[in-house]
Amino acid sequence: MAFTFQINSDITFKHDEFLLTKAEKYRPKINKKSVYPKKIVDICEDNSKLDGYYIKDSIKDIGKIKEYGMSRDDTMILDLGNHYVGKFSIDIDCVGSPMDAPLYIRLKFAEMPSELKFDSKDYNGWLSKSWIQEEFIHIDSLPAKLELPRRYSCRYIEIKIIDTSPKWKAVFSNPIFISETSADYSKLKTIDIKDKELKDIYDVSVKTLADCMQDVFEDGPKRDRRLWLGDLRLQALANYSTFNNLELVKRCLYLFAAMPTEQGKIPANVFVSPKNIPDDTFLFEYSLFFISTLYDYQKNNFDKDLLDELYPVAKTQMDLTLQMVDEEGKLLTDDSYPVFVDWSNDFDKTTAGQAELIYTLKQFIYLAKQINDIDIYKYEDILNKLVYYSKSNLYDKDKKLFVSGVEKEYNIASQVWMVLADIMSKDENKEIMHQMINNLFPVKGIATPYMYHCIVEAMFEAGLKDEAVTLIKDYWGSMIKLGADTFWEAFEPANPDYSPYGSPIVNSYCHAWSCTPAYLIDKYL
Ligand code: RAM
After folding, report:
1. What per-residue string of b and e applies to 264-284 under the rule 16 or more CB within 10 Å gives b?
2. Quick one: CA torsion of 9, 11, 14, 20, rounded to 10 degrees?
3. Which of 205, 316, 373, 398 could form a disulfide with 518 if both were Cys (CB 3.0 to 4.6 A apart)?
């Protein structure tokens, strides 16, 4: 089973005030900058771009914005020149006869041009319509400064006049977008990338990460605007390679550690506004990735105090998960605690889940050694069982591929996660990756950069450097060719307008889990 809305209102959560105080201590400063729209633009059709739309310069000049009187059904699109996250304001006046009716306008904020073309009335997907960045506003008296209270994530701002009156027109001036991020560009590590395609991919990755760095590492500043553990793990890795904001990682770890269930299980995501609230949503590997995120932190910057404080929480995650393992060392998955792996539901996830457990258990054992936990032998014992079960029951020695589920399915996720779990020899891992490429490529039915990241990382780990670089260029490079300023939450090359939610209008086009080329390039190239 895959991810759907979970409503677990009977669960009670802890609020560890000591850990929450720590999280508060590392709250970042938000850096603000005034961004002035660069141009007025028009939207036009171009089949080579996302959903068939592209932006071209308008004949209107942004320097003369005040001269363009607008009335019923007129539109104007402002282009900020790049993707930003922040707040918008604009001055509005009227010209002509006295203002004998209110001004009624619609504003749309779009990360990608195609969002401007979708009509929100047609949206019927399963996520809330409220994510659509669109406002309908009446203004009774002009001149006025319109200062929108909401934070938007966008490059394009469309102003549409729903109505003025035949006697007067509206004129706009002084549009300003105050961008917000906790990323500090003065700390950005410099890295010399000769290959132009990779350099572009690296730059877009950094921009994606920066725009998701807010009060916490958000998954997407348009949506869901919150801290998800699966996203955090990857953002933290990209962050060590770029801005290296250690305090922000600590803040996020403390937030998760502070608000598990009464039994100690960490939820998949937390909210920080209006106050710290854990979501009643649980994903199998997201809870486990608390261990990975702590492990990666320690590997990058060993911090004994942090480890001492958070190790018990990590241990509880592992102990709770190990209750799902049978005598033979087989993970028994549970539909109410789904193994996520990717948004796609088209493949069996049990072997990938088993591998994710092995992957995190090894990291946990490393942490346990740092702490001198006397229970270490117990974890090593179960690790051996999990590995033995995987090698003897899930590995097809003839095909040199792992199988998954009762149907013994061969899928990409199983190979990738078993290679990342690193249970076979170096040569065998390499062979598994070759067999995956020969038998299961081109990648089909995988829809997120989150899973593509794992595929690329497994290839690098197995020594398939050229193949890994080709996949980075094909996948992340294709988003750039389709017009991306930041990388997207979901992207299926064969089906570019794919959405997990029933309509791309609620897709997030700046999504944290897609920012990892910055890490992959830094680590492996
Ligand atoms: C979506 C978000 C988030 C992801 C979860 C599982 O709601 O995109 O980033 O972690 O799915």
Report:
1. ebbbbbbbbeeebebbebbbb
2. -40
3. 205
Cα(306)–Cα(408) distance, rounded to whole angstroms? 42
197-235 burial, b if ≥16 CB within 10 A, otherwise e? ebebbbebbbbbbbbbbbbbbbbbbbbbbbbbbbbbbbb
Q: Give me ligand 1 centre to Cα 417, in Å.
A: 19
Q: For residue 219, how far is its CA from the centre of ligand 1 (angstroms)?
A: 7
Amino acid at 148: L
> What distance in Å separates the CA atoms of residue 157 and residue 116, rounded to the nearest whole number?
9
Peptide bond just before 274 cis, omega within 30 deg: yes
Q: Which two tokens stand for residue 8?
A: 């677990």
To the question of pTM greater than 0.85 for the whole model, the response is: yes
> Residues 346, 482: one domain?
yes
Domain end residue (candidates: 131, 155, 179) = 179
> Which residues form the domain of 67?
33-179
C-alpha span between 28 and 215 (Å, rounded): 6
154: CATH? 2.60.120
Angle subtended by helix axes 284-300 and 350-371, to nearest 10: 40
| Model pLDDT for residues 324-378, shown as the tens digit of each residue | 999 999 999 999 999 999 988 889 999 999 999 999 999 999 999 999 999 999 9
| Choice from 126, 225, 489, 515 to test ligand 1 binding pocket (greatest atom count within 8 A of CB) | 489
